[in-house]
Amino acid sequence: MALVRSVVSAAWLAEAIGSAKAKAGALRVLDCSWHLPKLQRDGREEFGGKHIPGSLFFDLEECSDQSSPYQHMMPRQEHFSRYVGNLGICNNTHVVIYDASDFGLFCAPRVWWMFRAFGHSLVSVLDGGLVNWCREGLPVTSDLQDYPLAEYKTNAKSWVKTYQEILDNIHSKEFQLVDTRPEGRFRGIQPEPREGFESGHIPGSINIPFNTFLHSEFRKMKSEKELQRMFEEHNIDLNKPLVGTCGSGVSACHVALAAYLCGKEDVMIYDGAWMEWFKRADPSYIISERDEKVK
Description:
With 295 residues, the protein is α/β, with parallel strands linked by helices.
């Protein structure tokens, strides 16, 4: 279990689901599907119609800081402990996470990162997600599963960056900031998917769209060598502090997963992301080609 892989194949998971470990409760599979509002898709509703046998639904909105004005911000430790325990997960459970995005992986890396940020190392992402699982002809079901409640204790790490820390970094340059939104939104020439927000980026941030970490044809993660090359091409030094950001803290976690596959375990996330930055930052700190203020 100590050698748990961060990314597992559909074939591996299919075999694991039928194993004695799964039957003994040492394996738990979570569907964490969440979609941008413009897609008009309901992850929980879709889960009810089709999911990997034995899996449970992990709701990003329910397992979040309900007091925050921003979406799916990190929950408090006691909230996470209670939520995860209610899914029948304990500290020695191997958790495998997937989502039903057409990209293959969209929000699964977020939940993977959340577990790791709360001290849970026995966690993996299903490579290619549900779309690849179905492509390989593996079974799905609409049957819902219940598991006994479990006790779960967190051991949180300080992996969340605040607005003030991002603001200070513009001048201090203590860490590298990677924004995983599509290039058009980063540059400010395409709209944000949420009303009331204009596009652009944080000064000094580097754009690596989240989907470029995946193979476009097979929807699976690129190899370690390919990921290493991507970071190098964007002048990212994995020996230095690295922080991910995006629109609302979800796709930013693709940076954490990709860097982890290259041997870097401590990537942090700006949880408020562009939603918070756009609302709070001085206009001079919103860089956009729309306003001809390219940095």
